[in-house]
Amino acid sequence: MTNNKPLAGVGVLVTRPKHQAANLCRLIEELGGSAIRFPVLQIDDIDDSSHLYHQIEKLDTFDIAIFISSNAVKKAVNIIQSKKKWPNSVKIAAVGKTSAKALKDLGLKAEIFPSKRFNSEALLSLEEMQDVLGKNVIIFRGEGGRELLAETLKRRGANVEYAECYKRSKPDADVSNLLKHWSRGEISVIITTSNEGLHNLYDMVGQLGRQWLIKSNMIVVSERGADLALQLGFKKRPRVSAQASDNAIVQTLLDWQTQQCA
Questions:
Q1: Each residue of 129-154: pLDDT tens digit?
Q2: ∠ CA 45-152-71 to the nearest 5 degrees?
Q3: Residue 209 to residue 202: CA distance in whole angstroms
Q4: How much is the pTM?
Q5: Which of 168, 190, 224 is the last residue of a domain?
């Protein structure tokens, strides 16, 4: 019997954090693909949450609260809602659709978020983020990360503070099974959704794994990710998904597969 599913025979290395990979893997498998799970980022609570709690206590002094990711939403909003109602005077902004959905799931509405590209640049291009002179802005995010958002808002005259509510780390993983998949030719394409994750993958697979890694097909979610892959020595420029959502990534995967079969 012929398998007519579009991803039949396609092995997809999914590198999302363990708690965020299930839906993407399900979509791939429903289309006939084989989802190979290998998380390259781990999301943990921060070591000292005293500053986060302090920022939450004075939340009503801000004009805009920006959530960088769905992880920021889940980590911060649960704490906020255990202490107070969301202040009506504080507008909510989200960098992406996934973050906006996570807010909605917790009963909050993102009034400001991009409709196409989902990154700091897209958020900064919105009309609501232009006239911020004298406004107080709080950014809920993980430890570290890009400074573009805060730096640009400060140049526009905003007062910007951070509320760091989680940390990212490189998992301590056994790569032997992953190397077996590669040696058997079972990995057709890799999906990475952050530059930090790509760096981690490059480090985690070791010298032997890198021989396969740099020859691999890859899907990323930003032009920055594609540029980084080339800097790391990848032989082919990755395809860039229009969005970081699972559905958009799968559509990019289908487009890639269609081209392979052409």
A1: 999 999 999 999 998 878 899 999 99
A2: 20
A3: 8
A4: 0.84
A5: 168
